[in-house]
User: Which sequence fits this backbone?
């Protein structure tokens, strides 16, 4: 699966608009270990194991002492390691062979 650049640009515009609007952010731009469970459809402890084994990329930041990654960091890692994303928060992935 690859990131569809046209969809990514549209999402980026939505995130920018969302950040300018009062209230909660609707589209996640950062994900933590719990979101990785949902994104990859794995057991609750799997992302923790990936992290402890050094398989996850270096986190992009922390929130309340919990690691956080930019969604693009996780998309790139999934593509590099051939891991299948079952929940695509930004809806920017396309199946292999699909036109961009």
Assistant:
């Amino acid at each position: 699966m690859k990131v569809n650049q046209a969809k990514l640009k549209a999402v980026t515009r939505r995130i920018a608009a969302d950040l300018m609007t009062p209230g909660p952010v609707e589209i996640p731009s950062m994900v933590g270990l719990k979101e990785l469970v949902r994104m990859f459809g794995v057991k609750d402890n799997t992302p923790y194991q990936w992290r402890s084994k050094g398989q996850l990329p270096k986190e992009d930041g922390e929130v309340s002492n919990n690691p956080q990654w930019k969604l693009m960091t996780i998309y790139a890692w999934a593509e590099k390691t051939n891991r299948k994303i079952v929940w695509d928060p930004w809806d920017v992935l396309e199946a292999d062979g699909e036109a961009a």
User: Anything to note?
Assistant: The beta strands are 2-3, 30-31, 61-63, 66-70, 93-94. The CA atoms of residues 1 and 95 lie 5 Å apart. The chain has a mean pLDDT of 86.
